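Q: Could you write out the predicted structure for this multi-component system? I'm mainly interested in how the pieces pack against one another.
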Amino acid sequence: MGRASKGEERRAQIILALQDVMAEKGYERASIKSIAQAASINPGLVHHYFGNKQEILVSLVEDLGQRLHTRYIQQIEESEDAPRARLFAFIDAYVGLGPGADPKAVACWVSIGAEAIRQPEVRETFMRFMRDTLEQIKLRLTEVLADEGRQITNIEALASVLLASIEGSYTLAMAVPGLTPQGYASPTLKQMIVGLIEQQPLREGKESST
Amino acid sequence: MGRASKGEERRAQIILALQDVMAEKGYERASIKSIAQAASINPGLVHHYFGNKQEILVSLVEDLGQRLHTRYIQQIEESEDAPRARLFAFIDAYVGLGPGADPKAVACWVSIGAEAIRQPEVRETFMRFMRDTLEQIKLRLTEVLADEGRQITNIEALASVLLASIEGSYTLAMAVPGLTPQGYASPTLKQMIVGLIEQQPLREGKESST
Amino acid sequence: MGRASKGEERRAQIILALQDVMAEKGYERASIKSIAQAASINPGLVHHYFGNKQEILVSLVEDLGQRLHTRYIQQIEESEDAPRARLFAFIDAYVGLGPGADPKAVACWVSIGAEAIRQPEVRETFMRFMRDTLEQIKLRLTEVLADEGRQITNIEALASVLLASIEGSYTLAMAVPGLTPQGYASPTLKQMIVGLIEQQPLREGKESST
Amino acid sequence: MGRASKGEERRAQIILALQDVMAEKGYERASIKSIAQAASINPGLVHHYFGNKQEILVSLVEDLGQRLHTRYIQQIEESEDAPRARLFAFIDAYVGLGPGADPKAVACWVSIGAEAIRQPEVRETFMRFMRDTLEQIKLRLTEVLADEGRQITNIEALASVLLASIEGSYTLAMAVPGLTPQGYASPTLKQMIVGLIEQQPLREGKESST
DNA sequence: TATGAATGAGGCTTCATTCAT
DNA sequence: CATGAATGAAGCCTCATTCAT
């Protein structure tokens, strides 16, 4: 797993530079020149490490996804072992801080969502990450439902709404700052999840709570 | 109420053309030339009606917002008079169909959210619409809570999560099509809302259902 | 001599509008649209009165020249009858106030001098005025020299330097405002002229009049 | 003092190209394309060396100013040591030949004077040069007056008229060629200066030196 | 006369990418 | 690896001029 050769370092430098510039100007307006400047390297050098601009973007998507996943793993490790705790750890990792705990990263992530609509290569990478994330949500939900004696139905839709809420909270946070209350997302999402869970019918003759 | 002078028609033509091109290529790649072509007019004419490209975008934001609001009004009129029905009408208007019942409109809306991060003029218009929408959600929620004898607390956060879920569902629908189940959003969101409502404590000694 | 028909008024309006816009932006950046706005008329109307933009400029040159000449005639009429007084009246008309007593007019005049270098039609009109002016200077100088018993030689060069000083004072006044002292030009030019005159040899042993 | 790196050469090439094109068409009509052609380089390359068109113009102003100053220094070195000779050397440098001994340079200089009215950045550079030049004139004049026992008053105004005469002679030379006699400027200006000097009162009853 | 829509050319600038050194 | 010069294609916008009404 020999990471961090000179080349890898350079690549990482460039990817982070794209993140910085893109957070400020968006993808299209992030010129190779400006990226190079942000990375403190020569413009011509960028194309030694990436075939074209889009490749940097794809790498950034991977990088941001990786960072989010890493945070999630950490939160899981620090959390209690109970299913609910693990589900909440997921929420904390993904909205408590957003991707990378970094406003720049969140801004990029929103732009990436938009770029993914048009650029197949970006979509592919973005989608892979979203699919994995959705799987995790389903896992955590199933775990909780099982643990609490609820029927496991409709998981796909529940997980989708949760994922949408997370993505949407990024958009709101960046595009309409100040409109939504500070720090509302994490606790309210947890509350919402609890609500959803408790609407699931009990597995064996028990009455559902509705 | 003389609507649609010649100039207004042209403007509408151009705004719709931006929507079409932008849905396919995104804002930055929607060139004035391609917009003019989509509108079947001369490229030079675009700047006869709009000072610059951004003005078209801002007009499109207003237009899309207006369309959504109109749909909402219609749904309200068609719905029953009960508070819950009105809240659900809101959901149907905003996610049952997305902005404009039109995939193009949804694609644009996601891009607009991203552009709003960087372009103050776009943000302003986008934000005004989001603020109004948030107010509507709060109104509808308050109505329901009052009607069902629940305490009215935490409305701001509840509404924010709902708004985020809607926005996020647009992003998922366009950027990772097929990942989430068809038509999941509207019913699941309603379910989620019910869950959230029923977690609100009762106003007078009655037991909450949790 | 029926002046001021409706058409003539419109033309004058447009010419003055060019002056206003040109003073602020220069000739090339004075668009037909901005000229029309300054004239409070419709852009399309401009080409009813002038074949093209250059024609307006040529008319402006004529207009400014006319104004200057008119001022000169007035000053002459108000001045004493002595040759020196008439020469000084010339100076007062041309630099005491500049063309039209109007900073805008002076700014235009400097630009016109530059445009005359490249545009033959402008040069022709500009040159006609300059030739007439030079003739006036020579007349006034000859008059003075004759009156003061000086030999009349070198008039052409003397007049040219005087004309150059006037033109140069416009450039300095507009391009480097504040660099030269307020109101220096008129008295100092008079002083310079006196110096030049008194260097002319006497015609027949008479003493100079100073 | 390593002058003329590759980049500096290119810059100089472009600046001279602007001079050539501008002499023929004026600043606004000197397109980047035509400048590139005159410099025998690719149009896109121009913006590799200059941020925008105006920067080229400002550089040209500096370049022309430098050339004039250099000529003046040379004339001074070649002239006698007497104050009058030095003052006359100034005149020869500035009008005997015009800026750069080059009609193109003179044509540009006139246009620059006009552009300076509108473009602050151009004005600043133009003004700096004019200020320096005015200082030189004052120096030379003071020197002469001191040497010839004249009172040193009114220097500012005398110098201003001289500077105006020089600038004006450029305008006349380019805008109305043939109107003024060939080569009139230098000798007549000298004559005018002598006239001005000899009008200055003597410091202490001494006779003037003429 | 008057309006303002329409045309089409061209200008400045930006930029991804390639290449010589 | 690294530099930064070079290329050429767009892109946005401005504008003089024409034209239908």
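A: Regarding packing and overall arrangement: Chains B and C do not touch (no CB pair under 8 Å).
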